[in-house]
Amino acid sequence: MDNLSCTDAWMGGRMEWGACFSVWCWLLWKFRCSRVLDEDFVEREGIYDRGCRLLVECESTFGVTVAPVRELHRRQCWVGPARGWVKLNVDAAVGVSDDRASVGGVIRGADGEWIFGFTRFVGRCTVLLVELWAMFDGLRHAWAVNCRRVELEMDNKEVERILKHDSESLGASALVMSIHEWLRKDWVVIVRHVPRECNGVVDSLAALGQDYGWQGSTFPAPPWGIVHRLDDER
């Protein structure tokens, strides 16, 4: 009760602790129930990120003051790249009950036009590792379709830190070293982290990888199952 009623500032005075505490406690419980009771449950959004999204809804509905989440809310849509560039969004999905992992990615132009998409199953691995596989596949495909100015976005902050050498997690792995080799090729790639809301289309595409096996599939045109999300983001 002390936590729920607490109005103390949190994270440098940017959030009310009571609102954050209640939302994240509920999400921890919901996540546990889903993992235990739902064999098909797939973790596509971290508890922290989902909590921020729900706090935005709390703020708009009940007037709860959470200043940093307002900043997140302003940026929670896909934004096209600059003219002459393409935007590559990558994401991954991991089944909580069996760790079956798949990746996906989509390349779009400045007006949101579809250039290329891909998805594939990568086996059983952790969330962090499969996010790195998504980036590796994304870079490989972007190079293959002759993209040379690329804005690469993902919604996993730890992956961004690893690639910027700000984290020791998996830093010496062969996969990370292979990604750095791709980044050193004769092209310009800007890597950045974005909220999950900016990655909606590719989130759906990554989930499709479970159905395509190891060889995966590429999409010169958007698959029908995500056309509505593509139109929404555009």
Automatic annotation (TrEMBL):
It holds the Pfam family RVT_3. InterPro entries: RNase_H-like (IPR053151), RNase_H-like_dom_plant (IPR044730), RNaseH-like_sf (IPR012337), RNaseH_domain (IPR002156), RNaseH_sf (IPR036397). SUPFAM superfamilies: Ribonuclease H-like. Residues 89-207 form the RNase H type-1 domain. This is RNase H type-1 domain-containing protein.
